[in-house]
Design brief:
By secondary structure, the chain is of the alpha+beta class. The chain contains twelve helices and 31 strands. It is 18% helix and 39% strand. Helix 4 packs antiparallel against helix 5.
């Protein structure tokens, strides 16, 4: 062996990956020159790893956090069969004289499909070393013009139609494109992943699935792996499922060829998502949220149950849960149209002393499915994004029962049984409601008159508990006019209870807030503020001489309307109908006789 060759080998060995890895040399970026030739590995069909030829054309400088990339030309039967560089080949390892050069990661849109870019191996191993530490995320890099990552889009199976449209819009801010899958979860024998194997970064698994396909670049002896050669979400430290994948076919395309795949068994987790690739560990699962969706069609007498596991990152978890529930209702009913739904939600967490349960009744004359998810969206936002405390959800149960019958009623009249009351009395209210196309029905509510209410006329409002429901846009609302035509983006409203001093109070407010099937009677009392505020000052006031200013203040009217600092006086009555309408009346409050 010559001195020069021994020196080169020593130099390469200094770049051998950390202890515990397979014996692997890294080809230094500094030694990359045009004309070098090597070999790459990928899966074109099935699970067979095929080799292709690689010729180095040069180095393309990039702006951080992207590393400088290596331009290569690919050739050979595998590339010809695929029609060139294909989406899903990201992570395909490239070797020169047995040393790992890096991973195929990018191509050029609308150009020569045999020309691609390779992410250097050292940059990818730097990502692998990040699995333990938590670091601040860098801004999403902007690739050079016409350079596109070879990552497949988020391929979704089991979710289609408008639920898929909603998911696509929700994930667009994360720069994730969504497309329907052509194959569901495969039932192929699990295999050990190795460099060149197809694998999936899975965000949603179970009856509905969402995954991004790529290729494994390197596997260490201690069970870690790195792949893709570029980011998926670029969120830094993450928690995604890692699964093996089966490639049914690599579809040629005039733009970028792509792999049609199905997801196999979960084999571990992806815990780093950086500009140079993704890294994870075999045998270690990420945190995830199990969700059970039960849909009953009372007209058909059918029941469908769907189960999914969702990654726990809020920006992904919320739209994935909503899309799954939306698809579950659509699939369970197999129709779009009017109806009444009863919805029961249960959120379980060790941070909650008891399950957070919310029940409600909904009606829509056009599309009951979309309205049935309003409380689900609010509950997810409350628990995932509240500013008080981190909540680790362990399970969500969504139960929806739908019938086509219209179960609504309108408030026609509200009449007090007394025209005058004294402070401290109870006032009975007779409310007339008319169920849809039925005879009127009577309901009796009893509301208390506070003892500190001042004499005078009092206006009582009787209304539906669904007042906010009728003006709220449902979470999966699709506008008739696209956002681009409106001039600004449509944004889903997030109605989260506020003003609570603790998570327990926040949850209580959510569970106890008004429901669509309630009749609510309320008024703001005209209270004697001087009488209520000066009782505790009486003793001190007798011992002190009033100043001129205090005498002048006490000469002013000693009463006011409730300014919101105290609770509105309210009573609620549950019915079997979704209530709409409103009625008001006046009663006179008179001073008690002594």
């Amino acid at each position: 062996m010559t001195k020069i060759s021994r020196f080169l080998i020593v130099g390469l060995c200094l770049l051998v990956f950390s202890a515990g890895c397979h014996a692997l040399e890294i080809f230094p970026l500094a030694h990359v020159v045009p004309g070098l030739v090597g070999v790459g590995k990928t899966v074109i069909q099935g699970r067979e790893i095929e080799e292709f030829s690689v010729e180095v054309l040069g180095i393309v400088p990039q702006s951080r956090p992207l590393p400088d990339l290596i331009m290569v030309r690919l050739s050979g039967p595998a590339i010809e069969k695929a029609g060139g560089l294909a989406s899903g080949m990201s992570g395909s390892p490239v070797y020169i004289d047995g040393a790992l050069l890096g991973a195929v990661s990018h191509g050029y849109s609308g150009a020569d499909k045999t020309i691609g870019l390779v992410t250097p191996a050292q940059a990818m191993f730097d990502v692998l070393n990040r699995i333990a530490p938590l670091e601040v995320e860098a801004a999403q890099p902007e690739p050079v013009e016409d350079m596109v990552a070879l990552a497949a889009p988020v391929v979704v199976t089991g979710i289609g139609g408008r639920a898929l449209d909603y998911l696509s819009r929700s994930l667009d801010p994360l720069r994730l494109s969504v497309m329907p899958g052509l194959a569901h979860q495969g039932e192929h024998e699990p295999v050990s992943l190795e460099p060149g194997s197809a694998f999936a970064v899975q965000l949603l698994k179970g009856d509905f699935q969402a995954a991004v396909m790529g290729t494994v670049t390197h596997v260490t002896e201690d069970g870690r792996f790195v792949g893709m050669g570029h980011s998926v979400t670029h969120r830094g430290s993450v928690g995604f499922f890692a699964a093996d994948a089966y490639v049914h076919y690599t579809m040629p395309s005039l733009d970028v060829p792509y792999k049609i795949f199905s997801v196999g068994e979960v084999v571990g987790g992806v815990f780093e998502d950086r500009a140079a690739g993704v890294a994870g560990t075999f045998g270690q699962l990420p945190d995830y949220l199990p969700v059970t969706i039960t849909v009953r069609d009372s007209d058909q007498g059918t029941k469908q149950e769907y189960k999914v596991d969702v990654v726990s990152i809020p920006s992904l978890m919320i739209p994935l849960v909503l899309a799954s529930a939306y698809q579950g209702v659509d699939a369970g009913l197999d129709r779009i149209g009017p109806g009444t739904s009863y919805v029961r939600l249960q959120f379980d967490s060790p941070q909650i002393p008891q399950p957070m349960i919310r029940e409600n009744l909904y009606y829509s004359d056009s599309d009951i499915a979309v309205w049935s998810l309003t409380d689900l969206m609010d509950g997810l936002e409350l628990l995932a994004n509240n500013s008080l405390q981190d909540v680790e959800l362990t399970h969500i149960s969504v139960e929806v029962e739908v019938g086509q019958a219209r179960r609504t009623a309108s408030i026609e009249q509200a009449v007090p049984r007394l025209s005058t009351v004294t402070p401290g009395d109870s006032l009975e209210i007779e409310v007339t409601i008319r169920p849809y196309r039925q005879e009127p029905e009577k309901r009796i509510l009893r509301i208390e008159i506070p003892e500190d209410t001042m004499p005078g006329l009092l206006t009582v409002t009787v209304r539906s508990g669904a007042a906010g429901y009728y003006v709220t846009k449902p979470p999966v609302h699709v506008p008739l006019t696209p956002a681009t035509e409106l001039g600004d983006e449509e944004e889903v409203p997030h109605t989260v209870a506020t003003g609570a001093e603790s998570l327990e109070k926040l949850i209580t407010d959510f569970m106890e807030r008004e429901k669509n099937n309630e009749i609510v009677a309320e008024f703001y009392p005209f209270i004697d503020s001087f009488a209520t505020s000066s009782k505790d000052e009486a003793v001190e006031g007798e011992a002190m001489e009033d100043s001129a200013g205090e005498i002048e203040d006490r000469a002013m009217p000693a009463f006011r309307w409730n300014d919101g600092s105290s609770d509105v006086q309210k009573v609620r009555l549950t019915t079997q109908y979704v209530i709409d309408g409103l009625a008001t009346f006046d009663v006179e409050v008179v001073a008690p006789e002594y």
